[in-house]
Amino acid sequence: MSDHLKTALSLAASGVPVLPLRRGKVPFGNCTTCTDNACGGRPNMKTPGTCQCSGVCHAWAAATTAPDVITSPPWAAAWRRAVCVGYHPGGAGLTVVDLDDADAIAWARTTLPATRTVPTTRGEHWIYRGTMPSRNAVRPGVDIKSTMAYARYLGPGTGTMADLPDAVRVLAVKEPSPARPAPHAAVVPAGVGGECPHRTPAYLARGIAMAEQRITEASSAVHATVYRTFLAVLSRHGRCGCLTDTHVSRLFTAAQAKGETARHCTDAWTNARTTLGL
């Protein structure tokens, strides 16, 4: 039994769906029956499928915890050719923040809560408990791998796994088309009222300062960074009424210092509120 197969069976026994990855660290290609998903796809793909293929087809959707499948002849042949073990994070209730370089790691250390960390060839995987949509290039050097995606298994890692934070979830949210407020709309309401659960003003002050810093330090994708930052602030503070026009003005000022227009700031804030149902 190969080392990869032993690792795969151990992971599967702990509830982590696994699949073999071939040269290039990518899934094996579909067999002729499954080419172009002519078979209907796996039942565990985004839409119910009808595939009865016993091979390692359909990329992340092939991932399984069934030992009889993992050791079956088609899979055994794939394990002999495999260069590493892959797994489906979302299928295990996990999200992997894939940090590709030192700059991405530095960003994570100042922005995200500490969690289990696994070294990679060029960077680190930060693993959180919880699932979300997967999306690549959410910021320079950062990919999100959770549902409908696969990640390489590179060891158990170190540290205590934390729950998936809002700061990661908002990274995968695509900015909607710009809202079109009336020309005279110059003031955007900050919050919607309600009891503030944050207890101390320092919590909000720290959050606004971190949001300003995130916008100020953006070296690319400024539009997207501004929107995601607004979304993060509103997801944490937008429902309790603790945001004031002064707080919003600070965020708009930081965004405009990076070249954003007042109109874009208003659109981004309105879109973020709409996304969150505020």
Describe the structure.
The chain is α+β, with helices and mostly antiparallel strands. Helices cover 35% and strands 14% of the residues. It is built from 9 helices and 10 strands. It has helices at 3-13, 67-70, 73-81, 102-111, 166-169, 201-216, 222-237, 245-257, 262-276; strands at residues 18-22, 26-27, 84-87, 94-99, 116-119, 124-129, 135-139, 142-145, 151-152, 162-163. The strands form 2 sheets. Strands 4, 5, 6, 7, 8 and 10 form a 6-stranded mixed sheet that branches. A 4-stranded antiparallel sheet has the order 2-1-3-9. The termini are far apart. The model is unreliable at 180-194 (pLDDT under 50).
Task: Summarize the model shown.
With 278 residues, the chain is α+β, with helices and mostly antiparallel strands. The chain has helices spanning 3-13, 67-70, 73-81, 102-111, 166-169, 201-216, 222-237, 245-257, 262-276; strands at 18-22, 26-27, 84-87, 94-99, 116-119, 124-129, 135-139, 142-145, 151-152, 162-163.
Sum up the structure in keywords.
alpha+beta; 278 residues; 9 helices; 14% strand; four-stranded antiparallel beta sheet; single chain; six-stranded mixed beta sheet
